[in-house]
Amino acid sequence: MPDDFAANARTPDFARSSEDLHETLDAQVKGDGKPSFFRLKARLPKQGRTNVPLAATKNMWVVLKTYAQDGENELHAHPAEDHAFVILQGRASFRGPNGEEKTIGRNEGVMLPRGTFYWFKAVGEEPLVLLRIGCAATQGASHRGRIDIHGKPMAGDSKENKTVTRVMTDQWFE
Fold this sequence. Notes:
Largest sheet: 6 strands, mixed
Strand order of the largest sheet: 1-3-4-10-5-8
Radius of gyration: 16 Å
Shape: globular
CATH class: Mainly Beta
Helix content: 10-25%
CATH architecture: Sandwich
Structural class: mainly beta
Number of strands: 11
């Protein structure tokens, strides 16, 4: 298997936009019974955040996410997707719609059933790196569905989702 891994492992660049992320995941869909190999490697941001699409099938997708120190997103939910985050570096404060809060660090994670409202913020002195694994919670669901607290669509790279200009460092997570 190591030779197959070396030949097939992806070390992709980060997606430049939400649409780029979705298109890349769609292009990675495997349905032929063959494995998809990937590498957990990402350039770290000084400001902003990145999404590195790693692998996808029709019903499941894997993304490596990075957030600069103090980076965050806005309260939202994915109505047709169950997903989990695993912290690989740094710490994150996950928060719910009623003031619930839980800070987790390296080798800890959270499972979010479809429709769960949450937001999180990178806390501490180092960039946050998370492995995000999502799957369709309903027949035909996709990785594109995100809504705000009022039930309206909210793009992942929108101003409403606290997106700021991305500034990259020369440092890498690997």
